[in-house]
Amino acid sequence: MTQSSPFTAAPLLCGALRQPRQMLADQVYDGHRSIHDDKMAADLGLRAGPIEGPTHFSQFDPLLFQLFGPAWFETGCISAHYQTMVVEGEEVRAFAMQPAPGQSFTRIWAEKRDGTPVLTATASVGPDSAQGQQTHELEQRLARLRAPTQLVILRDLKVGQQGAGNPESVCMGFEQHMGEHYPFTLADKLKLITEPCLWYTPEGATMSPWGRAIIPFEMISVLLGSSSAQAGFKPRGPAVGLFAGQQIRLIRGPLFVDQPYQLEREIIALSESARTESSWVRTRVFDGESRALVAEMILNSAVLKASYADYERDAKALGKA
What we know:
Elements: E1 12-14, E2 28-29, E3 32-33, H1 38-43, H2 61-68, H3 72-75, E4 76-82, E5 92-97, E6 105-112, E7 117-125, H4 137-144, E8 168-170, H5 186-192, H6 217-225, E9 241-250, E10 261-272, E11 276-287, E12 293-304, H7 311-317
Antiparallel strand pairs: 1-5, 2-3, 4-7, 4-9, 5-6, 6-7, 8-10, 9-12, 10-11, 11-12
């Protein structure tokens, strides 16, 4: 992970072009294929099933490790708004600005080879208080939300609603299948991850500063998403959703392979656009043994109105203009 870079002394760090791999073609949500299935994607007017957004987080790890060192895996935060879908075969490059002297907060983004924006984001290390007046990308977007007038697909959900499964017990082993939402293992991912690191592996575990194998940033999303059905935050359906934004913050990291964790979920916002209805869910991650708070995630999940066959009928019945 300690790669050299010609951009070290420049205000901008730039990673290599990578081709992230699609590993969710067999993903199932609520008994049906997800947007990552090629046929489902084609039915929605997309040319192929898109790669899941947090897959791109791995491309930032070498850059942010270069900026912040091992602290990136202990108290790092990445907060991203996904802009353009990427399909397998497309090339993506990650960028990071050098933080100002003495600062631990920076702006990052990813682009396709032709400059098409993939995501815009912020990153930091340390507690919130260390960021001063700077606010992370997803928190800025949350602050600007307006309450929806009448949700249709998400009408059964409420702000403040707690997960029905709280606390959910999760763990990620190298050969552990992570369920219908994530039909692959950590070992499978490590064969294809865009930025390999010995600290992620059984062979390199003892070489990590923590003496154990750590879970890659992009796989924290998988760990937390693997039990999400237990929360009971169920939209009307069938309908197709996607990640619109995501913030992962380590508080007492890293998260470790084969370590038990407990999750507590809460809906913190609901919103709507012309094409989607969205839930914003905060997931707090506790160590399964000490119960210390070790991480949290905010996930903005958007459901496509056009994918819900009864949208117009239900909207009319609800008096939605």
